[in-house]
Records
---
Amino acid sequence: MSRKIAIALLSAVVIAGGFSAAPASAAKISNGTACSKLNATTTVSGFKYKCAKNALVKNSKLTWLSAECITAISQWQSALKTQASVGNVSEQLTELDAQYEKAVAALASVTTAYDNARAQVTKTQASMNAATIASEKQSLATALSKLANAVLILSGSKSKLTTQVRDLESKKALLSSAPATFKASVQDAKASASLLCKKGY
């Protein structure tokens, strides 16, 4: 083998080795691999990584974290904030209970007045039909008109109060289940983050 050929082959080996060395070094980067520059980014085999502290780990140091890991941590932190924003559920339930009892009492009162007005309409209608004196008939017709108007007003009030009572019932149910619902959301989000931030991923 001539000297030129030997040198050419040696150069090819060195060059080939140079190209293979970079991916081998880059391949070492994964979740949990130490890094030194905060917010530095890199891409390995199509996966993006960022140099940051893992919020899932207490007293975390700078390590490479995948984009999926960072997104999952963000979702977990968001779930924690939402859970905290609910505040004191017992106090809110007490306030809702007071509103609910007031609405129920108002609905009962309006319902009674509505039923009475309808009964008066029926009674007045019968009296008017039985009346033979024109002035009496006219008087009963006027009373009937007022009663009919009262029935319409009471019917509208009853409908609104019924809707209000149902809305309050729904709010109470949602608020009562909120702590458990948000707790489950936080647990699910943390489980996902722990999976996606697993060292070596």
---
Amino acid sequence: MTELIYGFDPLCGWCFGIVPAMRQVRADHPDIPIRLVMAGLFAEEGVRPYAQLSDFIRGAAPQLRQVTGREPSDAFFRLIARPGVMADSGPPCIAIAHVAGLAPDRALDFAHRVIEVHALEGRDLNKAETYAPLLAEVGLGPELPDIHDAELAEAVWAQGRRIGLRSFPTLAVLKDGAARVLPSEYDPERLSALVSKAVN
């Protein structure tokens, strides 16, 4: 069996940048399962007030725009300037894993919407109410497990950590038991072509 492993974190700027390319891959290769794997970019001692990262993110935004054509919005920067808004991968990863458990075929769409409402609309991913309209988009009710449950977050990240996922996004084609990591590519057509070459 061939599948595409997609190492993803909903707080990762480069994961935000690759969303259009991943949508192209999915459209071009509907027969290739995409397995979303998370490992917690901001976890445990790495969780911090988002405001501490603001200068770094602003400094990285021009390169992100140059490479991917995307950058965080003013609404995002207003959000992360607020006192008490935390950079914590746990809540969104738990929400995404919840959708993956109930509706696996809709998890990727949900994950992409989560990262987009954060980076483009400035929605706070630490609040359970942020997810209600996104859950409705994929046909699910607003109920979520406790998105601040640290043990649950660790369980969500276990697979990604077991395979040594440390860089986001990471794409690897798993074919006949062997994994081939793809080079970083954010152009939709070129990424789709890379996937085609790796699976054939």
